[in-house]
Amino acid sequence: MHKTALAILASAALVFAGACSSDDSDSTTTTAAPDDSGTSALPPIEVDGAEDVTMKVGEFIRINTPDADKVSADDTDVLETQDAYSDGSADFVAGAEAVGDGKAVLSVYSGDELLYEVNVTVEG
Questions:
Q1: In this structure, are residues 99 and 77 in contact, taking their beta carbons and an 8 Å threshold?
Q2: Residues 78, 94: contact at Cβ < 8 Å?
Q3: pTM of the model
């Protein structure tokens, strides 16, 4: 019983340590988890500031910046963008879908003001 409790505590410590992150707000790197099943969709990659993102074709970036209402990509063969909008029953945030391999810069705006840029690499 003592060994089981110790194993549970060790596992909890690893999970807690993995959940912690650094305080570096200038730039971070986000990588989507691999999908080995081939049947389940991954959640969107949440972005709220300038960072580097690596993703796969078919994955989405969701912009989590309160005033962000427009996005644009410098390479539309890599990223297809969608500005924030409302359909009358729901509000949708800005974002982008990875549509091809390559690198692109996703620019995030509030009106005409550039808020930040996201460096995106799409692989497979």
A1: yes
A2: no
A3: 0.68
The percent of the chain in helix, strand and coil, each rounded to the nearest 5, is 15, 40, 45
The answer to whether 102 and 78 have CB atoms below 8 angstroms apart is yes
What are the tens digits of pLDDT across the range 58-116?
Answer: 999 999 999 999 999 999 999 999 999 999 999 999 999 999 999 999 999 999 999 99
Pairwise CA distance, residues 26 & 67, whole Å? 19
Burial of 117 (0-12, 13-18, 19+ CB in 10 A): middle
Phi, psi of 31 (to 5 degrees): -125, 130
